[in-house]
Amino acid sequence: MRLLRNGHPMSRNKIRRLMKKYNLFCPIRKANPYTQMAKALEKSSVAPNLLKRDFKGKGPRYVILTDIKYIFYGNCQKCYVSVMKDAYTNEILGYAVSSSMEEDFVLDTVNMCMKLHKHEIPQNALVHSDQGIHYKAYSFKALLHNYELRQSMSRKANCWDNAPQESFFGHMKDEIDISMCKEFDEVKLKIVEYIDYYNNERYQWDLAYLTPVEYYHYTMTGQYPLELKHLPKKK
Q1: How far apart are CA 164 and CA 151, in angstroms?
Q2: 214-235: string of b/e by CB count within 10 Å (b at 16+)?
Q3: Residues in CB range of 187: below 8 A, 6 or more apart
Q4: Residue 106 CA, distance from chain mean position
Q5: How many other CB atoms sit within 10 Å of the CB of residue 55?
Q6: pTM of the model
Q7: Per-residue pLDDT, 232
Q8: Of the ranges 39-48, 93-102, 164-173, which one carries the lowest mean pLDDT score?
Q9: Which strands sit side by side in the sheet containing 150-153, from one edge to the other?
Q10: Are 65 and 187 in contact, with CB atoms under 8 Å apart?
Q11: pLDDT at res. 51
Q12: Which among 7, 21, 43, 132 has most CB atoms closer than 10 A?
């Protein structure tokens, strides 16, 4: 390239002949084996998308969505909320609130979900998430395996694969008031209270005008709460 720039034009064939004549070789950079290994490990840790947006096709407790969201409070402080949500009834089955992104709080979410609802969750139910680092971790995969749950992951950079979970976080951010909260414990209490309200008191149009907890019992027993029978049907 230096010769060419200094006024010595050569064709590719001439360059090849000169290299062959003087036994010259151009070194080719080899791929970094550590980079290749990291990419291979990352790819192997991504679970297939078994859900394929069929959020409500299998009935209650069969598809469980999980995700993490951060919330700002006080003087630009941040806390993290991990939840597991029944895609059919919209009920929050497990949650954890943490002041850091440590791996354990995601495991706490799974343990809480199974402690409270293990007898309701069918074998080989799906736990669907994005491709976040917490959900690729061996400890998370091993925990799901121990509970006999299958793992499913959204496609990369595709928010629609986990849209119902994002819907819950959107409602929570709109409806919860943490403007006066200065400490982590205050914010945590507000979030816990909102999740209880969301499950037990917040009626939803798409759930036959029931709360998530009521809708689950309605789908399992067929008994509609008497006090809500007068409501009009959705058009």
Answers
A1: 17
A2: bbbbbbeeeebeeeeeeeeeee
A3: 71, 73, 79, 97, 178, 181
A4: 11
A5: 20
A6: 0.77
A7: 54
A8: 39-48
A9: 92-98, 77-86, 63-73, 126-129, 150-153
A10: no
A11: 87
A12: 132
Residues 197, 212 contacting (CB under 8 angstroms): no
Q: How far apart are CA 124 and CA 144, in angstroms?
A: 10
Strand pairing report for 126-129 and 150-153: parallel
d(CA 169, CA 16): 62
The letter for the amino acid at 41 is: L
Phi, psi (rounded to 5 degrees) for 14: -65, -40
Q: C-alpha distances in angstroms, 90 versus 56, 95, 98, 117, 204?
A: 10, 13, 22, 14, 9
Helices (H), ranges, the chain: 2-5, 12-21, 33-44, 104-117, 133-136, 138-146, 163-175, 184-200, 212-221
Positive or negative, the Cα torsion across 200, 51, 143, 189?
negative
Token reading at 88: 């059919």
Alpha-carbon span 141 to 92, nearest angstrom: 21
The three-state secondary structure class of 83 is strand
Q: How confident is the model at residue 235 (pLDDT cuts 50, 70, 90)?
A: very low
Dump pLDDT digits (tens) for 76-113: 899 999 999 999 999 999 999 999 888 789 999 999 99
